[in-house]
Specification:
Blueprint lengths: L1 H6 L3 E7 L2 H4 L16 H11 L3 E4 L1 H4 L16 H17 L10 E5 L3 E3 L3 H4 L14 E3 L2 E5 L1 H6 L4 H5 L7 E4 L9 H9 L4 E2 L9 H7 L2 H5 L4 E7 L15
Parallel strand pairs: 1-2, 1-9, 7-8, 7-9
Antiparallel strand pairs: 3-6, 4-5
């Protein structure tokens, strides 16, 4: 796929999100993480790099954060983890000389604290218990990142821009619910200084979002310059659907 994209003038960056059980191992409460899983991220990312695929393993980015990189009652990353991942991706892209466009400025605000339901209660089979016996839910003050209104308005100031492609993002994000949780897309836009097209899908697993996006006429009509493909470590073992890029 990387070679097919390259022929179209599109770069690919694969970002691998490590398991929560890898980063927050101290919180496993004695649960066993199979030894065979310890090397799978390094082995997989190394194989991609050897094949010429630009790859970023986010393990070293999230490890210093420990359990704070993930939500307490959820398998997904927290805002701290999502923000750190966004910074790492933006830094990586600057190092390889990629510039996201159109350049914009963003403003940050904090929403009131609200309960944030987690998926661990369901995955642990505890959702049938009375709420009083379930783990206490987590409350989060979500960060909201929006493009400055003046920037958005100034971006469409002539007919060429209005009906052309100059104001379309040159970065597309595909992936899973990680890209749709804890403000990751907003953090990434802020770090890149540009809006991005987000085509991530909840439950997308390894290649679900990729198949839908690359089969979309919009991809062929207005292709990006870069595709960031976010893949969780836990989905490296899921069934891979062959991705066919239409001419």
């Amino acid at each position: 796929m990387q070679r097919s994209l390259k022929k179209r003038g599109i770069d690919l960056l694969v970002a691998v999100v490590p398991d929560k059980s890898r980063i927050a191992a101290a919180q496993l409460c004695g649960l066993y993480r199979p030894e065979v899983q310890q090397a799978r991220v390094v082995q997989w990312t190394n194989s991609l790099k050897e094949a010429g695929v630009d790859t970023l393993d986010l393990t070293t980015t999230l490890q210093p954060l420990g359990d704070t990189a993930y939500l307490r009652t959820d398998t997904h990353w927290s805002e701290s983890g999502a923000n750190a991942a966004a910074r790492a991706l933006a830094l990586h892209l600057r190092k390889v000389g990629f510039r996201a466009t159109p350049q914009r400025q963003f403003q940050t605000s904090i929403a009131p604290i609200a309960e944030r339901p987690g998926d661990l209660v369901r995955l642990a089979g505890l959702d049938w218990l009375p709420l009083s016996l379930q783990p206490a839910p987590q409350s989060v003050a979500a960060t909201q990142i929006t493009e400055l209104a003046s920037e958005a308005a100034s971006g469409v100031d002539n007919l060429d821009d209005l009906f052309g492609d100059s104001n379309l993002p040159n970065v597309a994000l595909i992936g899973t619910s990680f890209s749709r949780n804890s403000g990751f897309t907003g953090f990434l836009q802020r770090e890149l200084g540009a809006p991005i097209g987000s085509f991530a899908r909840d439950g997308g697993e390894f290649s679900g979002a990729a198949n839908v996006y690359f089969d979309n006429p919009a991809f062929r009509q207005t292709p990006p310059k870069l595709v960031i493909w976010e893949i969780p470590e836990r989905d490296l073992q899921t069934v891979y659907e062959v991705i066919n890029l239409r001419p």
